[in-house]
Give the backbone structure.
Amino acid sequence: MSNKSKIEQPHPRSNESSALPAGVTAPDFTLKSTPDQSVNLSDFRGQPVVLAFYPADWSPVCGDQMAFYNEILPEFQKLGAELFGISVDGAWCHTAFSRDRKLHFPLLADFEPKGEAARLYGVYREADGTTERALFVINGEGVIHWSYVSPVGVNPGADGILSALEELRNNNEPK
Amino acid sequence: MKNDPTNAASRSKLLLPRAKHDHIQGTIDAPIALVEYGDYECPYCGQAYPVIKAIQKRLGDRLCFAFRNFPLANSHPHAEHAAEAAEAAGAQGKFWEMHDLLYENQEALGDENLARYAQALGLDARRLMSEVLTGAHLARVREDFQSGARGGVNGTPSFFINGVRHDGAPSFEALLAALVR
């Protein structure tokens, strides 16, 4: 291995991803949200859930995807959604990162067995030991409504998530 | 890109300068449109500020530049009031003067500083601060923010050239190359 970090390098392969597509049941998982608390995905049935897999805590400020979603969080909440960030960092690392960036949503530790949840969703990057920068919007029935894999170096923003959540809300409104 | 549910055409339109709504430098029908979503307290926006000035100088009347508010209020505690102060200055006819002063004084954006800048610009500082403190322009700032969130803003500054996000560096060379492409 060279000691040059591979994280955050542009990686033009979004169309080759094996990420689970829309229409597939979202695999359940239990991951730590703090050193002594866990989150089961299936506990959030009945509301939309956004999963944001990202390569690692502590990437540069301002362009940072999680800090960015922290700012957009009220827009997600208006659409009734629960947001989780997921990386292979451990719960203590997440705790420190979350405190530093003043995040108001949970970060889940896909730490042991490493990357197990990411593998279930088809977004583990074997060569790097991290996850893709991948987004999943899951509907209230636990089915993936939308998924997207961004080049690792490009923060995907929130527009795709917001559009998917609006679609879900419109689908649920009485015709 | 795959699975992108957004309507590219309507989204792109949202990201062009809008007459009467946006704060614009240059004419609305200039051939090149540059929209910035920015935060007055963001250091990267501060670095981009002189770059935009240089780009405007270089492109002259070929460029229409619009600035929209995207305050990252959790990361930057003064960003929202600064954005509202610029809008309040705009209500007195001096948006761009305040916009420039804020970027030239990023380290001093507390409310007392905002009042001082209003005075320095010859504005009614009392009115401006009252509008800031009562959130008179907050809806406008949030509207900009929401349009950015929907339009693909992914951090600050985010630039849109003729409606398309510029993912390259916000340097003079990279922006100019993308603008005249």
About this structure: The first strand of chain B starts at residue 23 and ends at 25. Residues 29-179 of chain B form a domain with the Glutaredoxin fold (CATH 3.40.30.10). Chain B touches chain A at residues 1-6, 11, 42-44, 72-75, 146, 149-156, 167 (CB under 8 Å).
